[in-house]
Amino acid sequence: MTAPAGLLAALREIVGSERCLSRREELLPWECDGLTLHGSLPSAVVLPRDTHEVARIVRACRRFDTPFVPRGAGTGLSGGAIALDGGVVIECAKLDRILAIDGANRLAVVQPGVVNAALSQAVRPHGLFYAPDPSSQMACTIGGNVAENAGGPHTLKYGTTTNHVLALELVLPDGERLRLGSATGWSPGVDLVGVVVGSEGTVGIVTEVTVRLTPLPEATETLLVLFADVVSACRAVGAVITSGLVPAAMEIVDRRTIDAVEASVYAAGLPRDAGAVLLVELDGPAEALPPQIERIRALCAVEGARVQRARDDAERERFWRARKGAFGAMGRLAPDLYVHDAVVPRSRLPEVLARVGEICDRHRLRLSNVFHAGDGNLHPNISFDRRDADELARVVAAGREILEACVAVGGVISGEHGIGTEKRDFMGLVFSADDLEAQHRLRAAFDPDGVCNPGKILPTPRFCVEANPKARGYDHVPL
Amino acid sequence: MRQLFEGADPAVSGAAAPGGAIPEGPLAAIYAGTLDCVHCGLCLSSCPTYRETGRELSSPRGRVHLMRAVAEGRIEFGATLAEEAYLCLGCRACETACPSGVRFGRLLEETRAAVEHAGLRRGFARRLERFALRRVIPNRRRLRLAVDALAWLQRLRLDRAALAWLPRRLAAPLALAPRVPPRAARRPLPWRTRPVMDLAVASQSDVMRTHRASVPKPPRGRVLLFTGCVMSELFGDVHHATARVLAANGFEVVVPHSQVCCGALQAHAGDAAFARELLRINLEAFAGARADAIVVNSAGCGAALREAGDWLPGEGDALARRIRDPLELLDEVGLRPPAGSMHARACYDDPCHLVHGQRIREAPRRVLRNVPGLELVEHEDPTSCCGAAGIYNLTHPEMSDAILERKLRTLAAADPDLILSGNPGCLMQLRAGSRRLGLRAEVLHPMTVLDRAYRNQES
Fold it and tell me: Which residues neighbour A432 within 8 Å (Cβ) at sequence distance 6 or greater?
C-alpha cells in the first residue's frame, strides 16, 4: 500500500527528503522488528529530530487519514513496531539526546531514542544506573522500553519500566502535546503515566521521558550454579524465593543455549557439562552478601548443584554479556528464532517447563530455554526456518499450545515482550469480552479514530467496527 | 498483513522466491551468509552509519535484510543496495556485537563485487578509483612518483592553493594527505635487520623486575615484515621503527622484496579478482622464507591477509595462520621493556580492522602499559570507527566527517598528548582531523612510541 502523494509531500516539507523514505526497496528493512514471524511493509518512514517535528508529522498523517506507528531500535519481539494497513513508521532513533541528569534527585530526562545501556553509562559517574535492563539493552531505546513496559533480568529486585518512569511528554494522536506525571514521582489524580507505559505505542508518541535512577549497589556478587537439568534448577529457584531472600536476578540458561553462546563472540567460559546453569546475582551492602551466598549454596545443594562465583567484575560482565547475547546466539542453530514470552506462578515452573518440552517434541521443534526464573517469566526459544512452510505452521501451533498451557496453570500470555501483532488474538485466553471492551474504551479516550499503531494488542471489538467501519483489524494470518 | 516472506512480488522479479530455487552466481554466497542473521538487532548501536542516520536501512541488520531480499528476488538488485553497500564503512563493529556470527565484512565484500559485476556503479569517479587502485597503489614505481608529486606540491605550497579552487571531491585527497616524510624515511628497509643480542637494560626499573638485566638475550626467532603499499611511502618511518623494536626484542626481521600490496583496498572496492591476483604474488613472496611469523603493522592489511582463505581457500588459509600484528606478537612473547622512557599521556584508539577484523583488543594496551612513563588513558568509545575506512573519507566525505567529529570529541575530552592507532588510514584521518580542530595531541603508530622509548635509552 502506498502513501497518498499529498502526505509524502507534506512529510517532506516537515523533515526534508533525506529523512522521509517511500520507495519499496528502501522501506523493506522496516517490514519487521525482532520477530520475523510477522511482517508488513510501511507506506513511508519518517525520521523526526525533535518533538515539534513529531507533532507536525502526526497532524499530517491525520490530514491524509493514514495510520502511524512509533518505532525505536526495532528490537521488540511481538511485532509491535511494524506498520499494518499501509501506515507510516515514525522512526524515533534520532531523538537520542539525554536532556538532563539530576544526580541529587536521582533522575534523568531523556528523549525516546536514547539507548538503554547508553543511559546507564552516562549516569555512572553520578554513582547511579537505570535499573530495567532488557537483554537487548545495548541496542534498544528508552521509548521502546516505555511502550513495552520492558523488564530484564534485574526486574526481580528492581521492577519493570513502569516502576522507573516518573513523567512523560506525549504527542497525542491529534498532534497535541501532553505532559503527564511529575519529576517528584508523586502525581495527584489519575495515574496516566501508568496507562502510557506498556501501551505499545497505541495512545500517542512519547517524546520525552523522565526516569528514576537507582544508586549503584555497594557490592555485587554473581553465582553460577550448575544443575543436572532445568527442572531441578527451577525447584532451587523456588526454594530461594521461599526462603525470603531477594536476589537482584535469577536466570536459568539451558544446555543448548550455553552451547550456542559459547560458540559466539559472547563466550564467557560457561560450563559445558551442566544440564542447566542458574545465574544468581546478589547486591547490596558488602557485609550482607556472604551470609546470603551461604544460604543459596545450601539451598542449591539440596538439588545436588555446584556453586561457582564470578571472580571479578570482568568475569561478572562476561557472564551477563553471555546471558544477554543468548537470543542472538541461537541464530547459529537456524535462520529464525521465535522468542516466546509468558509468565506462570513460580511454583508451577517445573511442570510447565516439562509441558513446553513435550509440546515442542510433539511438533518436532528445536527448543531452548533461557529465562527469568525468579519472576516465573519463561522464554521458550524455538529455532526455525521461515522458508519451511510446514515448520512455520508447527511453530505457530506450538506457540499457541504453550500459551494455553501457561494460562491453564494461572499464568499470563506475556511478561515483557508485549502483545503486538503476535498475541493479539490470544488476549481472549486471559480476558473476557467485557474486560477487553474496557481496555478498548480507555484506548479510545486517547485515540478515538484508531490511527495510532492500529491492529495491535486488542482484538477488534464489536462496538468499534459498528462505530467506525474503517477500524477493521488486519487480515490475520491464522496463528 | 501477511506472513513475512511468503513469496516474491511477481511485479518486481521472477527470480528465486523463498523456498524456491536458490539464487545462482554471486548472489548465492551472499544469500547463504545472510541466513546467519536472526534479526536480534544487537548490532544496531555499534554501527556508525546507523548512529548518524537512525535508519534501519543504514544499519547492519537492515543491510543484511536488503541483501537477502535481493538474493530471494523480492526486490531488484538496484541502486538502494548499491548505495548502502558503499555507505557502509566496512568497519565490522557489527561483527564484534553479533552473537549469531554473521560475517558481515565478507558479505559486504561479496555484495560490492556483485554491485560492480552488475554494473551498478559507473561514472568518472569510479573509473578514477579503479585506475588508482589497480595501476598506481600496487605499483611501487608509480606510487613513488605520485607521492613525489605530492611532496613537490606540498613543498611549493601549491596544495593549499589547489584546495581553494579545486572542487571538493578532488580537493579532499589533498586535504587528507599527510605531509610526505623526507626521503630518508621513505627509503626501503634493509632486507635483513639483525636481532639485538645484548639489550642494555636498567636493572632497577620497576617494569624490569621479571627480566634479568644485562644478560645477553638469545634470539627469539625470525619474522618477515609485510610492507604494503602506502605504508612504505607515507609511513616508512613506522616500518623502520617496527624493525628496530622487533630487533630489540630479539627478532631477526627479514623483508621479502617481491611482496606487493595486500589487496584489501581493491577487495573493499568490489575488485575481488584483482585482490586475488595480488594475493597470489604475495603467497609466492612469503612462501620461500622460513620464519616464525609474518608481521603486519597495518591493521587493514593484517585483517585482509588473516582472511586470505576467503580469496584463495587452502593456500590462503596457510598464509593467514602466519600473520601477526607486531603488538600481538610482542604481547605473546613478552615485551622486553625499554629502559628508556616516554613521558606522555596517551589514548589508544583501536583500528577497526585490528579490534573487529582481527579481534585484538587487549594485547596493544598490555604492551603499551609496559612503556615506562607512558600513561594510557581510556577515552569513550575507543573501538568505534574514525571514518577513514580505506578510501571512504574520499568517497563519502560528509558521513566520514560526521563520524570523525564524534571520534575527535571523545578524544579531546580525554586531553591526551598522544593518540595511538596502528593503521595508516586512521593515522591520516586522525591527523587531518586534529589539525582541523586544533587538538594538541600528536597522532602516532604504537610502534613509533615503542621505538622512541627504546631510542631514549640509547641517548
Answer: none
Q: Which residue has the cell 510433539?
A: A362
B117, B136, B153 — which closes off a domain? Answer: B117
Q: Does the structural domain A98-215 have CATH classification 3.20.20.450?
A: no
Give which of B442, B435, B388 is closest to B419, Cα–Cα.
Answer: B442
Query: Of B328, B282, B335, which Cα lies nearest the Cα of B304?
Result: B282
Distance CA(B293)–CA(A123), nearest Å, equals 45
Q: Residues of B with CB below 8 A from A261's CB?
A: 99
Average pLDDT, chain A: 93
Give B394's pLDDT tier (boundaries 50, 70, 90).
confident
Does A219-328 carry CATH code 3.30.70.2190?
A: yes
In CATH, the number for domain A333-408 is 3.30.70.2740
CA distance A124 to chain B (A): 13
The single residue listed with the C-alpha cell 529486585 is: A157
pLDDT tens digits, one per residue of A110-145: 999 999 999 999 999 999 999 999 999 999 999 999
Test the A interface: residue of B9, B22, B40, B50 with most A CBs within 10 Å: B40
Beta strand ranges found along B93-205 (DSSP E): 192-193
A265/B96 Cβ within 8 A? yes
Q: Which CATH class is domain A5-91?
A: alpha beta
Assess whether pLDDT exceeds 60 at residue B409.
yes
pTM, full prediction: 0.92
Contact B100 A332 (CB under 8 A): yes
Considering chain A, tell me which residue range(s) the CATH 3.30.465.10 domain(s) occupy: 98-215
For B88, the domain range is 26-117
